[in-house]
């Protein structure tokens, strides 16, 4: 993709945005950065702007980070010198016909974009990007599981609750590492899929009775399946890890009280920022290509 | 599941139905069989009926085979002494409220069942059953691929076209056997999924240009992606295997003409009949349980 | 390796020798062939000789096939128009200082070579070449196992007896295909190795008591561990496959008598001749390089 | 194994010894512990001794830890209140005919044991125990690699140097996690083995030229293969991990100087103490059984 006459602003985010900005510059576009951790040696082809407004001035595309918008309307940008509020004022510099690619907007940003004639392309709930981040998330879960246990994954009996994008990839990886993986899911299609990947599939309601034979429980579902009853039935000192979006699926306080190692694995998507940044760029660049083709 | 007061008829089919009948009898039901290959030693708890009508007389459930109904309206029953036509006359012996569980009915069977007050439960397009049959189908494809080639799967460059239930499982298995698997799919979500499973994903339109580097092509899509152009670009003596439903996705005549080993892999679902029969029974018995719960 | 001034004779063998001859010619050597199945289109850079003597005339290297020498002293050469007896007369055309690379010689060949001042390089018992052939042998065993059974490898309980080069690779591959693999070996080091690869290891003497839970037994040891007692304890219609060198480790006649599917898997090393020929060439060419370096 | 009339002393060590003591007690033996971290709730069937001498008094078997003897002659026992020196005085309480099972003795301990008529059984260099610890060591290496890198193991190009017990298991595991694994070894038999496990094998001397394409290097050999030349050729910010026994195979200071993430992975064998303790007990108990059988 040759974007030689385009201007791309990368605003907010974390180490992943470094890789995204670097790859954006490799298309030939002029790239301006603001609000993510800037590396000592700079990034080839990328200009650091002094403010978010300066970065956005005249941009054809603005890339905002995946974690989306906080309750106060600001972007995810822990390394920014000050909060970044993407209101109509900030977007002034982007002309009509420009595009913002982002996780998801709140109502204020949606209104501001409409006012300025700016298109929004969302990918928070994009299955492709979730799958591309999958290996980074699963490896992060492995790291935590290895760090927090007195047993090996190999030759252990472990449970994975849920067989969505992350549950499926995690379960398969644990099988390959030599665990006996018990996959708990409500949906019989998911259970059949898990069986073909080498798991022992079970309906959710069997989790309680199988708990005494497990040494690790990974939950990937947002509902509270791993409740106090299940936790009380696990052997002492089990690992319980919650990989679901808030409010999660495990009562972690109860887990700690009962003597388990309770791990809240939010934010694993920020792991392996070079790999994940590159993956996200592959999705972002396909969306840019679609906009260019339409234009 | 205790079906002690139920009568189940297993009519038509192949070696899989032996296992289905055997497992049906293990529930305590009275099981009558007709029209599938009867083993020399019989099947414990199963009675062989002299005609299809005798098997169906008074049955609460009739199990018809997955391959469904031929163009002339008869059931798949290659081992039956005569064709089995499930018309209203044949169904006379089943009372109102009975249930037929089958792949899929044609219009005549649908009308006949309605006339008699018999419910139909279809599973031909059932993803769960397809996934449960998946390992048998994939192992059958491996057997053919090993038999038909002069190279090992290990350390070969192979293509899988399509990433549906069978394509996905086949691709992952080939990865585990040590092949470099190139996965071709139109859908970027499927490509991202394939990548997480260790494949190199590509859009369909790249198949032609990558063909010279491949030694095996497995197609699981019903449309003609692997056309004469692609076939002509493969190295001489490649394996091309079509795993899709008719009309398939590979021009097998052209493949042979061009000196390839062209394999039509229909009917792999009939492999491993004990495993597959047991898998299908697990799906059938869940449907029976649902009917019983509602009744 | 540049062998532009060398003459290589490839004498006897099967389809593997085609690939060996082809790759030998790619070094720049003059290559003459006799006694293996000659392809319709010929082989680039390789001359078909009319007799074995013509092929060997003036050769610096003669490559004889791996299966070695029959009881009557002739080479393995099922496609040759007449038996090839490598006696002193036949070797006359090779000068002193020439080298024969082969599986293993008998006494007559050894004496003939010594008489002519020809060096012998043997590789029948070469672990490297066995490992390079390993994937072809294991895939051949998979093909037979899939063809001969009514169950899938996936989700079956299978036994591998012996954990040498082939047993180890076979066991690991069966694990990856989703079998529960019980590995029987006398040596605790081998059992510990098998455990790390995802097998359940057991001492040999437990085979008898575990037999009723198995559906396939693969024996890779030459001694008779899988005896009539073990065979009688297997479920009816089990698969028993012997992968060991003669006299093998399974009483196959007893196995058939007892209603099992008994498979004698000798000769799997002849599978995938292009891959295996290339593997063998990589080993042969390293030996040639050593001879050249010394010369 | 019934050891009802035996006394076993477990002296020194770390969390692994808890599991060893617990399993020793399950044989019916009287078990006395000293010098490893004692858990709050105690260990069922195990008595905590006040001194090492008290633990050893009348013991039939003494189990000393794997890490062996320090330069000053004391046992590995970081949690002991005072150093444990296994001299003739300390061993006084063990009668002639008793047995010490340990990693390896120094000269003083060997002399002291001989003086007292005590047998020594060593397992430091025991391949079986190394293989049983293998999965714990490999998982520890994965944890460090995931923690220290900005890329995923999945879809990365990584090198493993050496294909001994740990190198082989590590390489295979990295393959299963989706890395492209380049295996560097001097021995062609090891390279052929690595190839069959899905690695790309290379001779050691190619490490330098392939370094620019790698993002992680794991060395398992004690000699300095990964020297400054190789390190300088790696991309900036690579991971280099040394898994070999001292003095190791990587110049870690140079690695840091050159901007790499240099990790010294000694002591990974202490990970997963419950699993590893149980593994070691399986080896120790087999040795006890041999002593009992001889006795």
UniProtKB/TrEMBL annotation, chains A, B, C, D:
User: The D-isomer specific 2-hydroxyacid dehydrogenase NAD-binding domain covers which part of the protein?
Assistant: 151-241
Q: Which SUPFAM superfamilies match?
A: NAD(P)-binding Rossmann-fold domains (SSF51735)
What does the record list as coiled-coil region(s)?
none
Q: What are the transmembrane regions?
A: none
Residue ranges constituting the Dipicolinate synthase subunit A N-terminal domain according to the UniProt record: 8-123
Report what the protein is called.
Dipicolinate synthase subunit DpsA
Organism, by scientific name, is Actinomadura yumaensis
